[in-house]
Amino acid sequence: MDSQRTLNLKTEVSARPAVHRKKKKASSTAAEWVKKIVLLMASAVTAFPFLWMILSALKTKEEIMDVSAFFPQNPQWQNFTEVIFQSPIVRYIGNSLYVSVITVAIQLVTGAMITYAIVFMHFRGRKALFAIIMGTYMLPTAATYIPSYIILANMNLLNTYTGLIISSAVSIFGIFLLRQAFMQVPTGLIEAARIDGAGHWKTLWKIVMPMTKSSFITFGLMSFITCYNNYMWPSLITDDTRLSLVSQGLRQFFIEGGAYGTNWSLVMAGSAVIVIPLLVLFAFTQKWFINGIGGDTGMKG
Amino acid sequence: MAEIELKHVSKIYEGGAAAVRDFSLDIHDREFVIFVGPSGCGKSTTLRMIAGLEDITEGELYVDGEYMNDVESCDRDMAMVFQNYALYPHMTVYENIAYSMKLKKVPKEERRKKVLETAKLLGIEELLDRKPKELSGGQKQRVAMGRAIVRRPKAFLMDEPLSNLDAKLRNQMRTEIRNLHKNLDTTFIYVTHDQTEAMTLGTKIVVMKDGVMQQVDTPSQLYDYPVNMFVAGFIGTPQMNFLEADCIINDGEVKLATRLGIIVPDKGKGDMLLRKGYTGKKVVVGIRPEDLYDDETMLSRFPDATVHTKVEVYEMLGDKCCLYCEKNSEKLTASVKSDTKARRGDEIAFAMDLSKMHIFDKDTQMAIVH
Q1: Domain of A270: which CATH number?
Q2: What interface predicted TM-score (ipTM) does this complex get?
Q3: Which of A184, B147, B196, B237 is the one with CA 20 to 30 A from B101?
Q4: Same domain, B199 and B296
């Protein structure tokens, strides 16, 4: 009798967690589905304009204004060839890539140097300096246009890439992003590098940078996209069409006919083409958008 | 190889708090100097000032006669081992060890040779391709040492390098560090809060408290002739006993009346107390637990230096016994032979080895006579 009771007890005990587990599994699959549906909807909303752009690029001028047809009847692939070979769009893409790459490279170096000083060097007024830098972030960009324009004019740098590049040689956003990462680097490592005989320059690029690589990449990518898409400031300081960046170029060549004369399918094809470099970039670097300093820091916790 | 000289060095933080005050010390070539003291005593700060990681607020630092206050730490040619190792996580063990030589532009071949030599010395040859996160605490510690050794620097600075290791590994590494010092013929400066490490490793020990240097001496001198009650209590385990006593004259003899009994110091100590005018005043008698005896021979040998108390805790340590006693609210710890018959609750008499007795001024806490 007694032994049977213990046996019963045992089965009961072992059975209970199993039931529990099943329940948990069921509820978690439901949650999974909800999650998937929400994500699917969000993705659809995000992807729709892009899809529409591609589809519109393949439509004829008439089809594009006809809301009854979602898909083009005869895909007009020649829209793409026309845009690529008969418009200066490739040149604009080249211009944009050139300016963006140089700007980003300069921003990475200046950002890293300022951030290193703010985070790791001890000097009077360090906190005030950081406060001032962050303060300028609050300033609306438009408010800086006129003074910046005057400065560039005085330096004879209007209508040049040099002017365009040096006017965005420092990115406050980048400093902020790098600072968050640098602060995760243990001070002990900086001290160890200094003791090992590394100067500040070496410490920054050989110790700090490799440890905060993901932030550098994230910053570089975001900055690259901003530069590449930049419209307002470049169109203010350059009026030579040969120097135009993609956004400006797109506007000049496809919208200049006025709202009625615009060939929208070509505009869409042009837009699709200029996004290609960014898409390629994304394809290779999307994992870096998930930022953070990971893994072992070399210091015992 | 370096002669390091600190002249009235102070570290005062912006708020006015002083971490180190008026620290003067000559460190000779090939010395093994230990900075020891409780946490917050300024020992690490002093080391970091020597390394150049902290600014010196006041005073001067000279290395081989050269003024170093304003020299950047990267140009001081000193190696440092950090408490938390501070290995570069993105480099392999090999790269970690070789990094300082790479900075100095040592040719690759020579670099390789030196890293292998060092790795062999520390027994970490098979770890060279690993990253720090794949190492155990003891292995990281060795790599950190390797990184310092490979440079053949002017001086080795070590900031509590063993405190993150378990007891067994710590003993082992202690021996290895001592051997290293012997082999490398370089100045070592070592910070620890562990007095055992200090006593076993150092050729010169600097005891610090609240940013102030208390005493600089060899281990045996510190142990036998502590300058004040702090040093006396800090060096040695279990800690030295301190018994309050009235210094009186009775039958023409100087006697010390403690709450555990009257002690008659030997002639030399008695005369010293008399000469310095301590009669009628309060003093503190210091006696180490291992200088107390409960066996008959010693009790009969020192009949004038017997204290009576009661055992509260009996601790058997194998080779010896620790007796924690208390009577008349005066505590006393004795470390006696393991064959003692005393047990918890026993009334007990201890004979003091009078030659090992220290007497301190109660107010200033400074030693009067040893």
Answers
A1: 1.10.3720.10
A2: 0.82
A3: A184
A4: no
> Are A211 and B90 in contact (CB < 8 Å)?
yes
Domain shared by B52 and B197, yes or no: yes
Instruction: State the Cα–Cα distance between residues B311 and B327, nearest whole angstrom.
Output: 9
Name, in order, each residue with C-beta under 8 angstroms of B237's C-beta and a sequence gap of 6 or more.
Answer: B195, B196
The whole domain housing B305 covers 241-369
Q: CB atoms < 10 A from the CB of A113, how many?
A: 17
Identify the domain boundary among B184, B218, B234: B234
DSSP-assigned beta bridge partners for residue B284: B244, B360
Whether residues B80 and A191 touch (CB distance < 8 A) is answered with yes
In a domain, A270, yes or no: yes
How many independent structural domains does chain B possess?
Answer: 2
Residuewise pLDDT in 10s, chain B (370 residues): 689 999 999 999 888 889 999 999 999 999 999 999 998 899 999 999 999 999 999 999 999 999 999 999 889 989 999 989 999 999 999 999 999 999 999 999 999 999 999 999 888 999 999 999 999 988 999 999 999 989 888 899 999 999 888 888 888 889 989 988 988 888 999 999 988 899 999 999 999 999 999 999 999 999 999 999 999 999 988 999 999 999 998 888 889 999 999 999 988 888 899 899 888 899 999 999 999 999 888 888 888 889 999 999 999 998 899 999 999 999 999 999 988 888 898 999 999 998 999 999 999 999 998 8
State the residue range of the domain holding A29: 2-57
Residues of chain A with Cβ-Cβ distance to B79 below 8 Å are: 195-196
Measure in Å the smallest separation between the Cα of B13 and chain A Cα atoms.
Answer: 13
